[in-house]
Amino acid sequence: NAGVTQTPKFQVLKTGQSMTLQCAQDMNHNSMYWYRQDPGMGLRLIYYSASEGTTDKGEVPNGYNVSRLNKREFSLRLESAAPSQTSVYFCASSSGGTSGANVLTFGAGSRLTVL
Amino acid sequence: DAKTTQPTSMDCAEGRAANLPCNHSTISGNEYVYWYRQIHSQGPQYIIHGLKNNETNEMASLIITEDRKSSTLILPHATLRDTAVYYCIVRVLYNQGGKLIFGQGTELSVKP
After folding, report:
1. Minimum distance, in Å, between the CA of residue B55 and any CA atom of chain A
2. In chain B, which end has fewer C-beta atoms inside a 10 angstrom radius, N or C?
């Protein structure tokens, strides 16, 4: 089982460049999430998609856009990258719903450096 | 949103039980307590969750106080591979998908 797959694993950008982080899950999960983690800090929620066709802002959405392409895929786009967006980005998915079994499965992370 | 408070760091001797506390005094009646851990920059890994009863699985035990204002994650026989940052999270319910807000976590160091 692949679980949650993120691409690319590493990326270096120049300030002002754009790029898209891709995320795909094969667990038939309804909900998907994008988090970022800065050095020595916990994870912060950027955007999430509770179900196919919906997206909502998290704690730190500024500078990002997302697309829930289909049930499997949830992409994160940086339109004009800034050094402050240097971080490790994690995608996650969960079955969704309001039961306690709404456990998140995380990908391995994408390390982004903006020069 | 209910918030959690955890110690920044803890040490534990290998083979001993690791008891990680978490305070969540503003938790609502329908909010669950989740524990995740993150080993050296890998993606976080789910450990256990509970509502009000104590829970146990192959990884850990979760003890929730009767008033639900605090909980303790217990790793019964800690190994060096349990060295990680442990996150206690109270789940925020929103529409169909409950988003998780992570705090700073507790950095657990298991020492030989």
Report:
1. 13
2. C
